Amino acid sequence: MPVNAQLLNLTTTGARSGRPHTTTVAYAEDGGRLIVFASNAGRPQSPAWLHNLRANPAVTVEVGELKYAAAATEITGAERDRLYAEQAARDPAFAVYQQNTTRKIQVVALTPARVSAAAAHLKEIHAGLREQLNDTLAAVDAYLAGNGQLPEATNDLQRHCLSFCSALHAHHTREDGVFPTLAATFPELKPTLDRLAREHETVAALNTQLTETLTQLTTAPSREAAVHLRDNLHHLAGELETHYTYEEAHLGPALDAA
Ligand SMILES: [Fe+2]
Ligand SMILES: [Fe+2]
User: Fold this and answer.
1) pTM of the entire structure?
2) Ligand nearest, relative to CA of residue 127
3) Is 42 left (phi over 0), alpha (psi -120 to 50) or beta?
4) Which among 165, 175, 158, 156 is positioned nearest to 133, based on CA atoms?
5) Which of 209, 193, 158, 221 is nearest to 66 (CA)?
6) pLDDT for the residue numbered 234
7) How close is the Cα of 172 to the center of ligand 2, in Å?
8) 129 CA distance to ligand 2 centroid (A)?
9) Cα(29) to centroid of ligand 2, in Å?
10) Which domains does the chain have, with CATH numbers?
11) How much distance in Å is there from the Cα of 76 to the middle of ligand 1?
12) Cα–Cα distance, 178 to 238 (Å, whole number)
């Protein structure tokens, strides 16, 4: 797989087995569709997923945090040639794959059927993050209740705080990665996505502050640092509630309407 390729997980139904078959493939975006290439790294035979989707074009696409049902359509003729040439220009490995096989590498478009499952999934992730933040707040309270004298309270606080910060960072990084695809698929979402991306920056700055306060607290434990950490967490919680609410309200229905 070429380095830096945009990847998605494609699940097809086995043409013979009838069982789900998931594979990771590089994709391109074209006019609201995702395009995948049956290169099989230039091998003479087409990949199994192509045979599967020819038998059953109802597939599942997972891209970043989005998972949705899609319809697969094989593209032929001049349009296929254009899409393949564009992919080979973006990623020269695809030019090599085509040189290595006599078959014409097939090109498939994936068009979202409905993405409401993605909106529900988003709510679940937010609920998980909310819980991790609450656990961190409880750990600060426990730390303060023990006046920072209990080493296990410090360890507990550090563990909760770091796992929340990294989970939040990972979630927003994945969202940022999928926003360009969403904007291409649903152009009307562009202003919403721009606002969400700005909010991610605000949250990232608060997340950095929080990590710095935690470092202060663990290197030089003090009540003051713990109170500061609690303030940081409350501030972040407020920003996140606004962000989650907006994201779920504006991204959810738009996705459901797709
Ligand atoms: Fe977000
Ligand atoms: Fe989110």
Assistant:
1) 0.57
2) 2
3) left
4) 165
5) 193
6) 96
7) 6
8) 9
9) 22
10) 7-114 (2.30.110.10), 118-256 (1.20.120.520)
11) 38
12) 24
How far is residue 68's CA from residue 91's CA, in Å, rounded to a whole number?
Answer: 26
83-88 mean pLDDT: 96
Ligand 2 (single-atom ion) residues, CB below 5 Å: 247
Distance of CA 109 to the CA centre of its chain: 20
* pLDDT tens digits, one per residue of 115-162: 555 677 788 899 999 999 999 999 999 999 887 677 788 889 999 999
Using DSSP, state whether 222 is helix, strand or coil. coil
- The one-letter amino acid code at 31 reads G
Closest CA to 199 of 250, 248, 234, 244: 244
What residue type is 140 in one-letter code? V
CA distances from 187 to 27, 37, 256 (A): 19, 24, 15
Tell me which H or E stretch contains 207.
helix 190-219
Per the DSSP assignment, residues forming a β-bridge with 34 are: 29, 110
125 alpha carbon – ligand 2 mean position (Å) = 7
Q: Which 3 state secondary structure label does DSSP give 45? A: coil
